[in-house]
Amino acid sequence: MRRAQITEDRPWALWAGGVGVTFGGLRALHDVSVGVAPGEIVGLIGPNGAGKTTLLDRLGGYLPGRGAIWLGDVELTGLPPHRRAAAGLGRSFQDARLFDTMTVRQTLALAGARLGERDGDLGTRIGELIELVGLEGYRDKFVRELSTGTRRMVDIAGIMLQRPLVVLLDEPSSGIAQRETEALGPVLARIRDITGCAMLVVEHDMPLLLGLADRVYALEVGQVIAEDIPARIVEHPEVVRSYLGDDLTAIHRSGAGAAAGTDPGR
Amino acid sequence: MDIVLLGLVIGMANALLAAGLVLIHMSNRVINMAHGEFGAFAVAMMLALTRVAHLNYWLALALSLLATAALGAVVERTFLKRLFDSPRLILLIATIGLAQVLIVVRLLLPKPTVAGERLLIGGGQLFPVPFTMEPVVFDRVVLYPQHFTALIIGPLVAVALAVFLRRSRYGVALRAASENASRAQLLGIPVQRVSTVAWVLAAVMAGIGGILLAPVIGFSATEAVGLPILMRGLAAATIARMASVWAAFGIGLGLGVVDQLVFFWTGRSGLTDVILVVIILAALLARRARTRRTVAAEESSWEAIEPVRPLPAEILAHPRWQVLTRTAAVTGAVALVGAPLMARSAGTFFLASVLVIASVVVSMTVLTGWAGQLSLGQWALAGIGGVLGPKLVVEVGLPFLPAMALAAAIGGLVALLIGLPALRLEGTGLAVVTLGFAVASGSWLYTRGWFTAPGGRFPTPSWLTTDRFYWIALLYLAGAMLVLHRLSRSTTGLDIVAVRDNPRQASAYGVSVVRTKLTAFVVSGIVAAGGGFLWAAGTGLADVTAFPPIRSFAIIAAAVIGGLGTLSGAVIGAVYLWGVPYYMGSVSPYVGLLATGAGLLALLMFLPGGLARAMFRGRDHLARLVTGTDPRPGVPTNEEPQMLTPGIEVEPALAEVAG
Predict the structure, then answer these.
(1) What does the alpha-carbon distance between residue B521 and residue B55 come to, in Å, rounded to a whole number?
(2) pLDDT by residue (tens digit) across A17-35?
(3) Residue B409 has pLDDT above 70, yes or no
(4) Among candidates B533, B529, B524, which has minimal Cα distance to B400?
(5) If residue B118 lies in a helix (H) or strand (E), which one and from where to where?
(6) Which residues 190-219 on chain A approach chain B with CB closer than 8 angstroms?
(7) pLDDT category, B427, cuts 50, 70, 90?
(8) Over 90: is that where the pLDDT of A256 sits?
(9) SS3 letters for B287-305?
(10) Per residue in B221-230, pLDDT tens?
(11) Tens digits of residue pLDDT in B536-573
């Protein structure tokens, strides 16, 4: 699989047009179009059932549906997930379950296995990365022995190893402690600055998302109802009505803040 | 028309069985491999009550069905309850153990005697009928009272079931439980009781199906009788997507008609099994097109496999440990290689057959333990090598080893052909298809002249003494284990485990899920077929008597009893599978079956890691005694890695590493 590149004809890192997904007779996504520019962090907000995870699943190739999907100059539309990954599309799942019976080192070896590097080089790189994200004590631990926060770090390290063009992140703050959630924003921003990868982030923690994203799409019942920069999206009348209700406190963290959002619809 | 009528009679049993399978699947999300045995049990019961105890038909019927219902309830209350939260694949394997135990129970029931001989196989005339009438003669078939009994009672049972599901609160509860068991439980639905009711209903329906069918097609008090029956019900239930009792019922009837039509057109009964496999494959493939988004129970990972932790480096490097392990390795190797010199010929042959069985169990471990896929036809895959291989030697004239290599390769090819459609689906698709393959291979493929050696025999080459056979088997097993061990350490091995643990995440890392599962199945097919070739060479038999489909269940049992995660566990399992009947066969002919069936259930319930788990615990204890270092990991530190550390403090290094 050819790795995707940005060309003059195809300036978007990720572009999807007219995406539609149905579950039985239920229209989960209808004519959704989104674009992510190279190096851009794009947020995806909306109430439960708006279709955020469905959109990520469609982009990642885990659901069939309508519409065209491009990663740089490679069309992903009909490809299975592993070929999208090979083209340079990263994916972080909400549960960060990873692989129960694999050690941290094995997980990273798996993530980096398809980069065409020599084993020795990959081993060195994995070793450095493990030290870097503070996982030295966990190197030979099985993933299922780790806390969600630690697994999330392994997950992020794995994505960095893959050097994707775009990463789809589903609720990165889910299941981790408040203190770590606050640190998550800067970590993700720095990964973007250093690796240059773009991100499409679904996140319930509004302060985290609004502080991180360059641009935000708002979804409701399977359709894009607004698109704007973070400062303005929360004032968009459609968004206020559908998502935030009349209560704007959710946007501003008060004291300990809102608990990390988990989506019971999943 | 007359044939269609006959087909409907046969189909009625399929339909009742299929509907029961769907009921159980709705309540527990498990495919009950013991379901055919419920039917066979009722038949044996009926036979004992009418022909041995000489009871009246209706009384015997009532008692038989009552006993079958009780059996269903007991099974559900004991095993299912205990394993309710296990991964579904474990449950499925547990029902295989259950099937083996039920076979023994059935075989121990009193059998009718004719002229002083205990009757093992008999025709329909042995069975009593509720009423007598003149047979109705058509062009090609004659319909007797038993046919009309089936045509009357079958629909009545269906109506009764419909009324029950519609009217009683269990109908709704069952649907709720099938949608989402844990949520139904939260809503106050007694999921456990619903499950018991489903099992009792299903068992009774299987019993009725069996009792209706037995007078039509005759019976056989052998191990294998439940399998083809189960196969047909399972085919119908699978095509009905395990979702609709009525669809399964209708398709079961339809399959009965197809069965008879094919039989009358071609005159071959085995061909219908092949057609059945094709129908199942087509149905599975058609299912793919549908968009689904359920967190399927099958997705839950293979939690029974607790990974074996390698010993820490300081123990491995400890001089005393090294002396110990090297001494043990050398002694073990000398003992294994020198065994034929110490044992008598029969003993050597027994050891060799354990080694061959072990190689097939090892192939099971690769597929089920590593890849998390279940094949119910592993012994039939071995048969590919064991039935075709001798033909290559006898008719084509290939030397022994090239023939073995080619036979193994063809085994891999067959696995590829079966797996290609079956492995595109998540869950138990492969299990159903391989079961069909097992049944069809026994009834059709292994009887074809173009596939088998003359007379189904593998004349032992003159140079192949028992000792040499043992050494070849030893070499084959050791070689297979070595290659597979290397495989498990390779990138491919990592892919296989990753796909088992979490297919979505694996594909997000660029791993092709289908190709990886296929790789595992093809490798296991090659190893199994190679083992099968040796089995044929050792026994001299190259037909279905050497490769009965039912033994695939025993292979699964051995793999689980030994411990699915490790290759050494497979060897332990083979020793258990073959050793228990060898040393205790004089106690009862059923001891082997009982040992695997009961052993399987006991281990799944109480020691899910298998015997190998106990062995590795022993290794850890020994390591501590010898080296004074505790190999088990210490209490994990409470300190979590800090989210803050990466970006801020070591940014330059991060830039370098992330490239």
Answers:
(1) 51
(2) 999 999 878 889 999 999 9
(3) yes
(4) B533
(5) strand B117-118
(6) 190-191, 194-195
(7) low
(8) no
(9) HCCCCCCCCCHHHCCCCCC
(10) 666 667 777 8
(11) 999 999 999 999 988 999 999 999 898 887 898 899 99
Among residues A43, A62, A29, A79, which one has the least CA distance to residue A173? A43
Q: Could you give the domains of chain B? A: 2-267 (1.10.3470), 352-658 (1.10.3470)
Among B251-255, B285-289, B293-297, B584-588, which range has the highest average pLDDT?
Answer: B251-255
Task: Residue B295: list chain A partners with CB under 8 A.
Answer: 266
Residue A64 pLDDT > 80, yes or no?
yes
The model's pLDDT over B316-360, given as tens digits with 9 standing for 90+, comes to: 888 888 899 899 999 999 999 888 888 888 899 999 999 999 999
Instruction: Report yes or no: A162 and A85 within 8 Å, Cβ to Cβ.
Output: yes
Contacts of B545 (CB under 8 A, 6+ apart): B456
Alpha carbon distance B545, B555 (integer Å): 16
B116-119: which pairs have CB atoms within 8 A and are 24 or more residues apart? B119/B221
Res A266 pLDDT > 50: no
Strands B117-118 and A41-45: unpaired
CA–CA distance, B223 with B549 (Å, rounded to integer): 11
Cβ proximity of B221 and B29 under 8 Å: no
- Interchain proximity A180–B293, CB inside 8 Å: no
What's the per-residue H, E or C state across B426-482? Answer: CCCHHHHHHHHHHHHHHHCHHHCCCCCCHHHECCCCCCCCHHHHHHHHHHHHHHHHH
Calculate the CA B529 to chain-centre distance. Answer: 17
Contact in structure between B298 and B91 (CB atoms under 8 Å): no
Q: What is the number of H-type helices and E-type strands within chain A?
A: 9, 10
Q: How far apart are CA B385 and CA B403, in angstroms?
A: 9
Using CB atoms, which residue from A21, A23, A99 is nearest to B498?
Answer: A99
Closest CA relative to residue B62, chosen from B46, B38, B48? B46
- Residue corresponding to tokens 């009348």: A237
Mark which residues 65-84 of A lie under 8 Å from B by CB: 65, 80-83
Closest chain B residue to A140 measured between Cα atoms?
B309
- Nearest CB partner across the interface for A98, out of B505, B640, B642: B505
CA distances from A186 to A94, A172, A202, A251, B651 (A): 19, 13, 16, 18, 12
**Residue in B640, B647, B648 closest to A150 by CB:** B640
Confidence of residue A250 (pLDDT cuts 50, 70, 90): low
Written as six digits, the tokens of B392 are 């290559």
pLDDT at B125: 66
Residue B610: how many other CB atoms lie within 10 Å: 28
Residues in chain A: 266
Each residue's pLDDT tens digit, A146-182: 888 889 889 989 988 888 999 999 999 988 888 888 8
Contact criterion met (CB < 8 Å) for A183 and B650:
no
Gap between the Cα atoms of B323 and B490, Å rounded? 28
Interface predicted TM-score (ipTM): 0.89
Phi, psi of B139 (to 5 degrees): -55, -55
Contact by Cβ (8 Å): B145, B131:
yes
Candidate from A114-118, B272-276, B281-285 with smallest mean pLDDT: A114-118
Per CB-CB distance under 8 Å, the chain B contacts of A110 are 491, 494-495, 498, 506, 509, 511
Q: B633: which chain A residues are within 8 Å (Cβ-Cβ)?
A: 141
Q: How far is it, in rounded angstroms, from Cα B68 to Cα B102?
A: 11
Give residue-wise pLDDT tens across range B149-178.
888 888 999 999 988 888 888 887 887 777
Distance CA B648, CA A153 (A): 15
The span from the CA of A6 to the CA of B301, in Å, is 38
> How high is the pLDDT of residue B635?
45
